[in-house]
Specification:
With 289 residues, the protein is α/β, with parallel strands linked by helices. It has 9 helices and 12 strands. The radius of gyration is 26 Å and the shape is elongated. The N and C termini lie far apart (88 Å). 40% of the residues are buried.
């Protein structure tokens, strides 16, 4: 029979072994629950969010802001696909329209490394591995095909496939996936002319400095309907690896999971599709692939 002291030691050891055996099942579950709870709470109300300014959601986009993404060059009016998406995300995060503030962010600056002056940026920004090394991206809110817009009087307007554009004088905006698409999919015999912004790209086509430009398909519908009636959509083609657009945030932003949660809700309720149908519709362009 063990001594009283030994009995106490044995009893303590037995309890420790029982606790250790139970810990294998219970502790990971409890740890996961405790990790999930703060994450859920962090997205539950504006005062819980990591923001540029407390109580305000700061959203960036470029200027000018064109249809169908923005209307009247005014992101604050909630009209246009990306303005509407931005306000829908804001509402999911608990912000009223009055608590949303917009800042101008040049396209190429948005995905440069370093601190940001916005909580997220929305500007037809394609999710690419090089950019994702420097910034955070949300889950995609839209997937865009590329399109070729050519002057009706040009030889490029007669192309029926990508090979027919190989000798065309092409224009494209710098830093865009459209430039990558031209180089990878069309592989033109001469380098495309590259312009600083969308205004310069459109102006080059109007003044016949180039025969055709490459943009995303929704932009092509707008340009041919409103900006360059003397041009036509030659056709569309898929960007290499696809062209998913995401909301852009500072690298490591604590807001990223909350934005994804908001997009998940909007997607599951059909809101994103409704906004896409409303603003991004149009007759299908010929396939150039």
């Amino acid at each position: 029979m063990p001594s009283p002291r030994l009995a106490v030691l044995l009893s303590t050891l037995a309890l420790a072994l029982v606790a250790g055996a139970c810990g294998g099942d219970d502790e990971p579950s409890g740890s996961a629950d405790s990790a999930a709870t703060p994450a859920a709470n962090a997205c539950s109300s504006p005062d819980q969010l990591a923001l540029q300014r407390p109580g305000k959601l700061t959203i960036g986009t470029d200027k000018p802001a064109f249809p169908p993404y923005f209307e009247d060059d005014d992101p604050t009016n909630g009209k246009g696909f990306e303005s509407a998406v931005a306000y829908a995300v804001a509402a999911e995060l608990g912000f009223s329209p009055d608590d949303v503030e917009w800042v101008t962010v040049p396209f190429n600056s948005s995905y440069a490394p370093g601190p940001k002056q916005f909580d997220f940026d929305i500007n037809q920004i394609s999710i690419t591995p090089p950019r994702a090394k420097q910034v955070d991206f949300s889950d995609p809110y839209f997937t865009a095909p590329q399109a070729v817009v050519a002057l009706k009087s040009s030889d490029a307007a007669k192309a029926t496939d990508l090979a027919g554009l190989k000798d065309a004088k092409l224009g494209v905006q710098v830093g865009t996936t459209s430039l990558d698409a031209v180089q990878d999919s069309i592989d033109p015999s001469s380098d495309p002319q590259v312009f600083n912004d969308s205004n310069d790209t459109v102006r080059a086509l109007k003044t016949k400095r180039v025969e055709a430009i490459v943009v995303d398909l929704p932009t092509a519908f707008f340009l041919t309907a409103a900006e360059i009636p003397e041009a036509k959509i030659v056709g569309q083609f898929a960007a290499p690896g696809g062209d998913d657009w995401g909301l852009l945030l500072q690298k490591g932003s604590k807001l990223t999971p909350c934005v994804n949660q908001a997009l998940d809700e909007l997607r599951s309720r059909g809101t994103l599709q409704d906004l896409q149908d409303r603003y991004m519709g149009g007759n299908a362009a010929p396939d150039l692939n």
